[in-house]
Design goal:
Elements lengths: L13 E7 L5 H12 L5 E7 L6 H11 L3 E5 L6 H10 L5 E4 L11 H9 L5 E5 L12 H18 L11 E4 H7 L10 H8 L6 E5 L15 H15 L5 H28 L3 H24 L7 H31 L4 H23 L6
Parallel strand pairs: 1-2, 1-4, 2-3, 5-7
Antiparallel strand pairs: 4-6, 5-6
Bound molecules: guanosine-5'-diphosphate-alpha-D-mannose (GDD) and manganese (II) ion.
Length: 371
């Protein structure tokens, strides 16, 4: 650990933001590596930890007691990489902020070069890139390389900014540029760099510094298959978020899948099993509503997922909400049809009313934010 006599107590020029979840073994190693990589630089490190079960927050507090350049934002009842980075940057005042993973997969040795680059007045953002000459992805399997390439292409269209590695979680940004993006941030999922670039009112001036992605030594990745869903949500929010909230888009996508589930069960019961239409329809509704409930809980409300008892009560309220939603659907469609509206339009209006109703009411009663 640092010796206090070596520490420069002047305000930091560079805030290094480190999002953490279960990284207690890695955080001291990273702090040491960063200190070594930035001799003579006035830096500070801000760890943003979501109350990791492995006690990462406490580990960082112990480090902070020895080295005043280190501190922790210990978030409670929260999850999310993007929001962690944003809140970390917002908690500091230095003219430049860097974001780096805690697990040593990002090569901290290029921080010096990134800082030198951003000090020149003509760039807003310096990206640690695996895809420019001199960089690399280390020992990724071919599937991950391919997924990353496709996602990168989509991202470039969105940001209108030539970044070879827009999915990178390793970058340095000028505070003023970040603050210009702030009002438009989606804050969804893992891709905070992409979010910042796509939210900028004017395309950012970007430089890239190559590095090779290292292999994780301690702990495990938090990136799972749901990250793809979050990425889709981020893309949709960036494209249509001005008109429709991202959560609603997710809710509606789950709902469309529910319609498919409904018709599958209905067909099997009515045509296959030979049950009456009423029984088939009732069974299909129950399965479809439960399907929507569990998918929304896992995807749409991933950040406030219900568990245990709350999961059961959530399921009950969701059924009530959907039952009233269905009544509204039929009521509106019947009313319009009775007034000589074309039958297809009547039905579509009914569906729209019930989707909005279900979304609004379930956000109030099923996934109510407990403060
Ligand atoms: N506070 C907080 N909250 N931190 C989190 C959370 C969270 O919910 N989830 C993950 N982190 C932290 C991890 O502890 C780690 O320091 C960092 O975010 C990255 O998480 P990893 O789980 O190590 O992600 P990865 O290595 O699979 O993905 C990295 O590489 C991708 C490039 O393909 C990340 O840098 C991605 O952002 C990047 O896109
Ligand atoms: Mn990692």
């Amino acid at each position: 650990m640092a010796d206090a006599s070596q520490i420069n107590f002047l305000p930091a020029e560079l805030s290094i933001i480190v999002p953490t979840f279960n990284e207690s073994q890695n955080v001291p190693l990273l702090a040491e590596a960063v200190a070594k990589a930035l001799p003579g630089v006035r830096w500070e490190m801000i760890y943003v930890d979501d109350n990791s079960p492995d006690g990462t927050s406490e580990t960082v507090r112990q480090m902070a007691l020895v080295d005043p350049r280190i501190r922790v934002i210990h978030r409670h009842n929260r999850r999310g990489l993007a929001t962690a980075c944003i809140e970390g940057i917002l908690s500091s005042a230095a003219p430049y902020a860097a974001v780096i993973d805690a697990d040593l997969q990002h090569d901290e040795k290029i921080l010096g070069a990134m800082l030198e680059r951003i000090r020149q007045d003509n760039v807003d953002l310096v990206v640690g890139s695996r895809y420019v000459e001199g960089g690399g992805v280390g020992d990724w399997d071919s599937k991950r390389v391919m997924v990353s390439k496709v996602a990168t292409r989509m991202a470039t269209r969105l940001t209108r900014t030539p970044i070879s590695d827009p999915m990178s979680g390793f970058f340095m940004v000028r505070r003023d540029a970040f603050l210009r993006s702030l009002p438009n941030l989606s804050s969804i999922g893992f891709k905070i760099l992409l979010d910042i670039a796509a939210s900028a009112p004017q395309p950012l001036r970007v430089a890239e510094v190559p590095y090779t992605f290292r292999t994780r030594q301690h702990g495990e990745s938090k990136l799972d298959s749901l990250v793809l869903w979050e990425y889709l949500q981020l893309i949709l929010d960036k494209a249509f978020g001005r008109y429709i909230p991202a959560r609603f888009m997710s809710f509606a996508m789950v709902g469309s899948f529910g319609v498919f589930v409904h018709f599958t069960i209905l067909t099997i019961m009515f045509m296959g099993v030979g049950a009456t239409f009423e029984v088939s329809q009732a069974a299909a509704s129950i399965v479809a509503i439960s399907n929507n409930f569990f998918l929304n809980n896992a995807l749409t409300y991933r950040d406030q997922r219900l568990k245990g008892r709350a999961l059961f009560f959530g399921w009950v309220t969701f059924n009530l909400v959907c039952a009233t939603g269905a009544a509204a659907n039929i009521g509106v469609a019947d009313w319009l049809f009775g007034r000589n509206t074309y039958w297809v339009l009547s039905a579509i209006a009914g569906v729209l009313v019930s989707v909005v109703w279900n979304y609004a009411m379930s956000s109030l009663f099923t996934w109510r934010r407990r403060s």
